[in-house]
Structure formats: C-alpha cells, structure tokens
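User: Can you write out an input/output pair for a complex, sequences first and structure second?

Assistant: Here is one pair. Inputs:
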Amino acid sequence: MSTTDTPVHVPAVAAPNQPEVTPALEELYRGFEQELLVPLWTQIGDLMPERPNSHAAPHLWRWQNLRRLAEQAGEIVPVGRGGERRAIALANPGLGGRPFATPTLWAAIQYLMPGEDAPEHRHTQHAFRFVVEGSGVWTVVGGTGDTPAGDAVPMRRGDFLPQAGWNWHAHHNATTEPMAWIDGLDIPFQYLVESQFFQFGREQISEAERITPERSRSERLWGHPGLRPLSVGDVGPGSPLLAYKWEHTDAALSDQLLLERQGYGGTVEPGHAAVRFTNPHNGSDVLPTLRAEFHRIARGAQTAPVRETGSSVYQVFDGSGTVRVGDASWSVTRGDLFVVPSWEPFSATSEAGRTDSDSGALDLFRFSDAPVFEALRLDRQEITR
Amino acid sequence: MSTTDTPVHVPAVAAPNQPEVTPALEELYRGFEQELLVPLWTQIGDLMPERPNSHAAPHLWRWQNLRRLAEQAGEIVPVGRGGERRAIALANPGLGGRPFATPTLWAAIQYLMPGEDAPEHRHTQHAFRFVVEGSGVWTVVGGTGDTPAGDAVPMRRGDFLPQAGWNWHAHHNATTEPMAWIDGLDIPFQYLVESQFFQFGREQISEAERITPERSRSERLWGHPGLRPLSVGDVGPGSPLLAYKWEHTDAALSDQLLLERQGYGGTVEPGHAAVRFTNPHNGSDVLPTLRAEFHRIARGAQTAPVRETGSSVYQVFDGSGTVRVGDASWSVTRGDLFVVPSWEPFSATSEAGRTDSDSGALDLFRFSDAPVFEALRLDRQEITR
Amino acid sequence: MSTTDTPVHVPAVAAPNQPEVTPALEELYRGFEQELLVPLWTQIGDLMPERPNSHAAPHLWRWQNLRRLAEQAGEIVPVGRGGERRAIALANPGLGGRPFATPTLWAAIQYLMPGEDAPEHRHTQHAFRFVVEGSGVWTVVGGTGDTPAGDAVPMRRGDFLPQAGWNWHAHHNATTEPMAWIDGLDIPFQYLVESQFFQFGREQISEAERITPERSRSERLWGHPGLRPLSVGDVGPGSPLLAYKWEHTDAALSDQLLLERQGYGGTVEPGHAAVRFTNPHNGSDVLPTLRAEFHRIARGAQTAPVRETGSSVYQVFDGSGTVRVGDASWSVTRGDLFVVPSWEPFSATSEAGRTDSDSGALDLFRFSDAPVFEALRLDRQEITR
Amino acid sequence: MSTTDTPVHVPAVAAPNQPEVTPALEELYRGFEQELLVPLWTQIGDLMPERPNSHAAPHLWRWQNLRRLAEQAGEIVPVGRGGERRAIALANPGLGGRPFATPTLWAAIQYLMPGEDAPEHRHTQHAFRFVVEGSGVWTVVGGTGDTPAGDAVPMRRGDFLPQAGWNWHAHHNATTEPMAWIDGLDIPFQYLVESQFFQFGREQISEAERITPERSRSERLWGHPGLRPLSVGDVGPGSPLLAYKWEHTDAALSDQLLLERQGYGGTVEPGHAAVRFTNPHNGSDVLPTLRAEFHRIARGAQTAPVRETGSSVYQVFDGSGTVRVGDASWSVTRGDLFVVPSWEPFSATSEAGRTDSDSGALDLFRFSDAPVFEALRLDRQEITR
C-alpha cells in the first residue's frame, strides 16, 4: 500500500434527504468512522449520479506551446534509463494535477533529438504513437527474446503505430533533426485498476536494428488488405500490424467522401468520413483498452453533436475549424489537442474559408477508451441534437 | 466537471535518475505547470511500477461491529427516497476515506427493519446480494415496464443474488425481524471510468409483489441444471438466474470434497473445493464486471498462497480459520469481511480444532473484479510458494 | 476412394430451358462426359431448388415394432468386438436404403441383455443416448488414459446422456433385465463430409467401473445449476455434463406451464413448454453438431406449424397425440419415432381425451442438426400458419 | 421427397465378425427390411472407418481441355434465364457422376461471350470467382433492394471475388473477347444438408451498372489494410470486401519469401509462402463454408506432405511443377485443376528448370471446406513425412 491519497474524502455532490442530525446520529457516524465505514446515503449523489458527471474538464492544449516546451526539454533534459522517455503529458485540470488527460487516458508529446535513443523496456500498459509532423524516428519492437532482432518501424507524418502491452520497445532518431510525436497509453486506467508491470530491457539496441527500413516486417506480413499470413499462428492481445501508414488512411477517407458525392453513402453523416484502426487478425480494436480512429470533416461540414460514455483525446492533424465539447468551444488548427470527457457532447465544424488546400477538410485523429466500455457492456451513445 | 480532487498531485513513489535542478529546469517545470503538463520522468515510478503496488490496504472488518452499527442505523436512520438504501460501506484505509473496499469494488452491509421497503430504482452499476445470516427479505426485480409485476426473489442464508445493471429493483422485509446482508457492486469502478446512470422507480411496489414466493420466476425458468428455456430469446449482459440457492452451492462443494476423498480429484488443491457462480445462458461470469465464487477449505487444509492482478473481497460464511493477505494475518469467523488488494498474496487455513460441525470446514464467499481484467487481457496469476 | 455410388447420376428434377439438342450439342456433352464434366444448366433444378426439397421422407417407426425386433436381435445376435453394438438404425425410405434417419442424423435402438457388455471404443462421431423405458445400464466414459477409471453414468427413463466425439466409452447392463434405449449420432453427416476416425479400446472395463453409482462424477462436478467447478480448466467440444436427469427436465417443463398458468409467460406458445439441453460450461448446444430438446404439449394444446432448414428426429416420451409432418399425419404414442425432413412443416397436438395421467401432456424428445446450420449461418425458420 | 437414390445400399466396406447366418438371422433381417431398419453391425466398417476413406478420388483436369470445351459451349449453348450460367463443373470420378469436385465442393469453369449477360439471381450457396486468365467481365452484386444500383466488381487475372449467400448478382462481359474463370461454391455441401434457397432477380441490369469501374465500391470501403469504415454497422455472414486484387496477393507472397531470405521467417516452411483470404470485418474466413488461400512455392522448393480432414480444390495459377495427392502424381501447369480428398496427403514441388520468369515459383490457388470442419470441431491435420 502506498499513501498517495488524502485521508478524508468529501464528496463533490451532496446527497439529498439526509437524516436529521441528532446526538445519536453523530455517535453513529463516529462509530462508522472508527470502523472505517461510510454510509451510502451521504454519498449516493456523488457515486450514483443520474448520468456521468465527469471529474475531467473539457480542455485544449495548443500544439505550438507543447512543441515549444518539448524543444526546451530536448535541450536540458537527457533521455535515458530511469526516466525512460522525454514525454510530457497532458494533465487535465479536473484531475488533481495528475498527468491524466482523462480518467483513463494518457496523452503526451514525446521528443527525441538527432541520434538519440530512448532505452528499451516493456510494460503492460497498451500504447501507440501518432505522428502529426516530421519523420525520421523509428521504433524497435520485440527486440529481446526469440527473434534475432527487433522489428524497426519507421514513423512519418500521419502514421499510427499501436503496440500492445508487454512488448519490448525502444526508439531511435536516425536523422539530423529532432522529432516530436504523440504517445497515447492507458496509463491512468491501469493505474486505477492496478494491473501494471514494468521491466527494463537492453541498454542498447543492435546495429542491425539501426538500419532504416522502408517498411517494418509487421507491415510486410500483415499490411496487405484482407490477407492473413499462414505462417503466423497465435496472435497476442493487440494488433500484429505495427504501423498504419498515412497513405492508406488518407485514401480510405478520400474514398468515402467520393462515394458520398457519387450517391452511394459511405460516410458516417454528410461530409463526415471516418475509419477505425483495427486488428487485421480479428477485426477488433487495435488494442484491448484503446480505440483509435481518424475523422475527416469536409469543407463546410459539421458533425452532429454526440455524447458517449467514456472519454476521448483528439488531435487536429490537418485543416482548421471549430470544435465544441460540452459548453466549451475552440478554434483549432494543426497539432492542437483536446479532450472530450465522458458524456460531454462533441461536435466539429470544418472551416469554410480555407483556401490553401484542395480539400479544406478538417482531419482529426481520435483515441478513446471505448473498448473498455464495450467489453464490459457499459457503452451508451446519444445524439443530442 | 466536479472539483473533488486536490489540485496538486505528488506521486507516492519518486522516480530515480532525475535531471539536475538548474534555473533552466525550474523554468521548464514552471512552463509545464502553466500549460497543464506533467513530465513522465518525474512520475514513472508511481505510474509504471515493476508490479502492482496497490493503494488499497489489506484490511479486516469484524461482522459483529458491522452488525452492531447496522442495528443502530436501523433505529435512527430511515430508509426512503433520496438515500435509497440503509447500506454502510467498507472504506479501505488506503483509499482516502472513500467508501471503496478496493479501487474497483464496493461492499456494504445493508439492513432492513421489519415491514420496511427500500424504494425502487435502477442504475448501471452491476450488483449482487449475499446473505450470511437471516432470511425474510426479498428483492423485486424488473417491476417496471412490460412485465405485469416484478419477480420477487426470496433471500435466505447462503443465497447469492446477482443483478445486472439497469434492472429495476426494490427490497421488502415481510417478516417481524430485521435482516442484514451484504451488497457487492462495481460502484468504484464505474465511478473511476464515469459510466454511471441512475433512475428512480415507483414509490411503492404492488401488492402482488409483496406475496412471498417459494422460488422466483427466474429460478423456475433458469434454475434447472443444463436446461435452457426455449421461450427466452435474447438475454442481457448479466445472468438471467436471479438466485443461486445455498442448497446447490453446499451440495456442489460437498461433492467436490467427496470426489477428492474417492481419488477422483475435483478440488482445486487438496482440501480446497471451489465453485464459480456463472450465467447459465453462456457460462460466463454472472456479471460483466464482477466474479463471485464460493470456497470451502476442509478441516485442517490450507490453500497455496496465490497473487493475482485485481482485487477481491471475502466474507467468512461458516467455520473459522486464519487468513493471510500480504503481510497481514487474521483469525476469522462467521461474517467477517476482508479485502485482498491487487497482487497481494492470499492464503487461508481452516481451523483444525473445530468440533461443532461435522465438517469443520472454512467456508468463504468471494467476489472480485476478475472479469474486467480478463476481458481486457490484464489478468496475471502467480503461486508464491 | 471407395466405389459405392452408381456411376451415372440422373438428377431428380430436370432443369427448364434446355438448349436445343443438335449434333453439336451431343458432341459437346460427349466431350463433357469424357473429361468428367457436368454442365450446371442441366442440373440446376436439382442442385439449386427454390427451397429445400428433401430427399428424406417424413416417416414414422412404431416403438412396439422396434422393441420386438430388438428383442429378437438380443436372442440371436451377440454383442462384441467388430460389430461393437447391438444397434438397429432407422433407414429413411428416401435415402437409398442407407441407415440414415435423415441426411445428417443417425437414430437407432440399442439393446443390451442382462450382464452384457458393449466393448469400449471411441470415434469422432458425436453421440447421445436417450432412455424411453427401463433402467439398469450404465455407460462408462473416459476409461482409458490419465483417469484411473472411467466415469460410470447410470441410465434411467427420461435421462439424456450426451457424449462428445473421441471419448472412450462402453456399456454395461448390471441388471437381470434387458434394456433398450435410443442412440443418436451424427454418423450420416460425418459420413458425408468424411471426417470419421475410430479406435478400439480395452476389451474389458475394470471391476471398479462395474460398481453402480447413484450419480456420475460428471454430475457431481457439473450438475449444480449455475455453478462451475474451479478445478476444471479447459473443456472439450461437448458438454462436460454426461447425464441430464429426468427429474430436472420434468421439473423445468412443469415450471414453464405453471408460470404460463400464473400469467407470466415462460412457454414457447400457449400450452407448449420446451427446454434445450445445453453445455453448462458455455451455454452452447450439448454437442457441436447435435441439438437436443424436450417439448411438453399440454393436454389439448397444439403447436404452430413451423418449418426449418435442417432435419429432426422425435421420440414420443409420454402421452399420445397427433403429429403432422409435411403432408403426413400420425397418431403417436410412447416410444414412437418419426423424422421431420428439412423445410417440412411440423406441428403436434396433445390428445385431449387422455385420463390416465394428471397432466395428459404429450412429451416429445427431439434432436436435430441445428448447430450445423447455425454455425454456418444456414438456419432459417418460418411459421407456416 | 425426391426419389434420386437407389433403393438398396450396399456398403463399400464389409464389417467383420458378422453373426452366423441362420434361418433366425435371415428372418430377423427380413424384419429389419420390412420396418426400414438397418443394423449397425453390418455397416460399421463403412460408416465408422478408422480414418476418413474418401469416396472422392484424387483427380486432375487439364485447363486446355476445360477451356476448349467451354469455348465450344460458348458457340452453341446460350446463357439465359433457367440455365442461368454457362458453367461446366468438375465431376469427381468417385462421386457417382454428380457434378461434385469433392463431397462438399463445386468447381466449374464459367464462360461468357463478348457483350453477354448472365442474369441476376441469388441463392444461399456461398460462392466465389477466381480468374486465372483474361479480364473484362464484371460482376454486379446487390443490385436489388435498398441500394440504388448494384456494385460492379471488375475481374482480372489473379483476382479473387467472394460472394456470401443470398446476395443478388449478375455478370456482364463488356469487352470484345470471351472470358473464362473459375466458380467455387458449396453446392454439394448444401445439397447434402438440404439448406438451399434460390430466387430469380431482374431480367436486365441497369445501364449504370454497365459502366466499367476501376474499383468496386466494396473495395473503396473495405480494401484499405486494417481500416474499418465507421459508416458500416452490421455486416452479414461473408466478407464485405468483394474483390481481393492480384497486386496485393502477389505482394504479400513476395514479402514473405523476402522476409525468409532475410532470415526473419514469414513463410510456412522453407520456400513456401501462403496467405489466407480473410474477412476484414472480423478476420474470419471469407465465407462461412469456404476457405480460400494462395500458395507460392519458390523455385526448387517442396512442401511437406500434409493430410487434413476435409477436401480441397487447387488451381495452378502460374509456374509449373509436380503435385502428389495420395498415390497420384501429376506434372501441372497454368490453369490445371485438381482435387485433394479428405485425409489424402498432399505435397507440391516447384519445377527447378523454369527460366521464363524471374521467380520460377509455382503459384497455387486453393479453396476448401475447412471452415465447416473448424466450426464443428472436426478439423485434424497431420504431416505424413
């Protein structure tokens, strides 16, 4: 047992219809306190609200600020064993200063200087990387164990790289430029349910693992649409495909909008194309606890306001527009990150005035804890319009 | 957003290998604070420990104390709309005064006076009742909606009554004696992931629902071993069998010990019989987030120390013995409740000296969050001997 | 390759719109024949009918005739290695003299004289036994291998005993009376898809296996409603519960009719109670290829005519009444067996005039190939009224 | 009931240890015959063999012969309503002249003249098309119903086009050349289990459906690796991806052989690359009853002899080599088709002497009934070397 938490908890929402305070009641309550007991009737409003009343706040982080601070960290904070990663996490203002973007999700900017390595380790937390700008870093996955060498996975703008828990991994920046990207993990969820394991790996990756590949081995085995390699038997809990390349995501979204224009549907709603990154082995979410999606909102289109149980983090990948989360509303542009707490309505509008691109679409990367809710039958969704 | 939590979070476990504190670093950290960012490298020891390091403490609550305080509450705290239930919850000493037995589990003693009704409501939290002593209360499930009347489920010593989320339910004490039982729910888990919905139901249950049945309708449809009623099509997320009667549980455990004595195995380990309460529709756990089991440790037997990810609450149903949880050890007897935090080793020994029963076995009821861990592929188990 | 079938196949249903017979066409057809080719256009009416047009006929076998012939066989045909079982199978008049009750199902009366053993063997064919009269035989399952001795499963009137493929089994008649029962298997299905394996077992079962148990070990482990033994890990393709006792089946059916009379539904349709025998491990059908059900039609009730893809065999367990299968209609009584071919409408009426029983219900045991159809998404059902 | 089959069935394999023929036995057998009964003991050798003893024979059909006869049929047999398709099926010499390649599989060459249409229909039989040469035909799927127009799917050499049962479909040859391809269906299986439904569709497809698309709509929605369109909710029993293009199959196989050469495995065995066509929605086989795979055997490589329950049909797509099926052995070249009956060992060797291609690999398309066996837990496999 650690001693993190404050000793006394005062519920945020008082319960109605409390019994009259009498000496007998006060004595009863002292008895409860002495025996480490708490009555339901004083807590029910906080614990069992009519609908989710998230502790997390809708909040926006500007990419330019994240990027600037990450660059400063790159100058003065080394990367190495112990600290493990130069990752700087979003700390939701409603969550007590903890580095939790939402009650279940971790989102951080990671930054690697030219030639730097982030050391090998593994952990039960499920993770992914998403690249909003730059290229040149690759991630080596699975380098310890039976395989002669880890699988080097290059990272470029728009790429999505999932990595299921308990796989060894390291990072290497082979270029002469620093690189930043986004890490998403289920660190808060696993912190809450207390399922975490962690191990250090090798101090150095091998020379063979430093050679820049064009495609990872995982893509060569699993990256062909609808084709399963017969040489692979059992597959672990996450996707065996370690990189979802931007060219495919982009084409899939364009195809949906084109189908819509041709009168064949294909979009979620008018002007709103969307794909989910899925495990090619079984079609499930890429990770047991994390869902990842890409949404393209065509120029001038607006999504219907939707609220769902569970929380999401979005990053603007391209374009600009306006997003509404609960009562908040922000103009957003490339790289900006924001969170949608549980049951807060969300909608997005693509900015009509854009002219610097053919499409003018607002491209949003999203990740969420939806697989947790679906596996446990806790998912609900509602269009609030 | 509510404002429950303290604004600044200091991790319990400091991370090693921190960068040297310089004016530049201090300025960087001020920048992080201003932008609501937290670096991984100061938090990693707390967030990503080598193994689960539970915030919860092993702890024991004596039944006689619970029972005494519940009786006092019965005298002075009314049951009614708003407070909803006269339920008094275990508050783990490691969890900041919250009414959480473990980070994910709620356990409470509920108490109902002769003739009292606990009003109808429903909630997404999955729940069950387990009866360690007494009888005479029944629970009316599903009374609002299409069905002409709810299904009255009698409760007697040893009975286990699961109830999946979002089913209407009320309680009624038809006898001239008060009755106490244990409520188990996933309130903490749903509080953490923020999936809760709640609705008030009717103010009064109907007269028809006040008639004491011998068996509930659910038992008449689903309580025959291996036989599924063809009249029932789709079944919701939890077990359609609303009562697991003690006579069946007792017989199943006796049968296992007898098989063992006859040389045919049947037990988990020598002298240790155990059953899991399962959904007869599909064999899964009775509730999407909660597992319930019954363990019988024969006179003089001892269970191997096991540690698992996820947490459990145990109640001694019969017999007496010694239980060890992590570094703690307690002599326990009927009704005592204790918690096993994530990854703390647990073992139990039946007390050899008992003579007031043929068997002298230690009977333990257990519930846990194991279905959450299994659904999300986070389950691990280790025998520590 | 064996050479069973006739060399030339003439489809039963001629295809319409055939091309004009010319010398060129005749030469083409000779070319086809020479190259072992057959055109679709001459066969399509037979191969791809508008709806299933079963080769099997509705047919009834009278129990008294089966019983009489089985008794004769008991006198003159020994049971032993090679022939393996004194089993006499229903041969549907539409299926070319083969011992196939339907294209996929085998149904036979098996007969064992006092003191006789049917030798141990195993096969991939899934099997069950159902007892319409008598008792005194038991089946020893799993006697070879790791287990010290097989599990002796007693058989009594009304009991249903499933046995998944590739389990060793033998039979023993411990009484001074002969006994008859029904064997159901998927022999025709496995014959058609060619998946059969078979092995001889021990020549004699052990003395320990000859002791009459009250209940089998499987029932002691798996026969308690909703309770799973924790000592059992992986379970094979069929039900681990080897006997479904009549007392439970009877009670479940009575409970449904009682619920209906009390206004709570519970039956499939008015006066029609029904249960499916299911695998307590996962709620699925008891065997991968065979479904088994029990139907009770209350005195004077009539079931709606239903047709389904797939075929069934019924045995009258008790009562009497009238059954309609396609265009056929029969008065039936205890022990009578009949088949319902694919897509032939079936309904049953309980005989109102009965007085020799309180209930006067018509009790029907049914088995079918429905799991095959459901697993392969070929199931369809239609009420034809 | 139809009257296809011969009235008396003589088993191919006699059972041993028959009872001595006496007048009593003869009378008993006459009794059996009269009551439509057949004893197990005379049939067991045929019905329950030690291992599958397929009625089907290993057999080879030469593509040049098929092609020649199809061309002749193109000249003299019109395509139209009633006959439906100019399809000529392989009739296994062991299966009594029926157009069954194996007991469960249908394989036919289909031939369409320039400008011809094959009329729209639908059936429960699951189907696919595979193109060994030519291009210019497309298949219109789903043209009746809610969708304004069917989805036109172009067909080119190497393409694989699955189509789950009960989808409307037609074919159109838009070019000035005839085109031939292979149809694979589960016609024999559904004939045996009697699950077939069939309906005629429109007499003519629309003009919009005659426009040659570059890619089908299904490919634009589902053909991007690991990306699921969020606009599609429920998906039926088969793959929503209606074309698996050769470029992807070819690249996947090349990638595996390259990984092997680089020391990273990736192949099934040395020199043997293989992929399975899978449903991108859930990773399952493309059709509930049919599996489809592509195998590439590198120049000079040989596959280990494997036998499996269930049967397969192979077509040589490219290269040449030697294949062994049971006791048969054939030199094969482009387009040749052969069958592997249940439990017959199969191996293939690529011909070393080839020089007309860089790779010299033997490319084999394969389809089988494996999903049936796996769904019903009847699958077994053995390497016979």
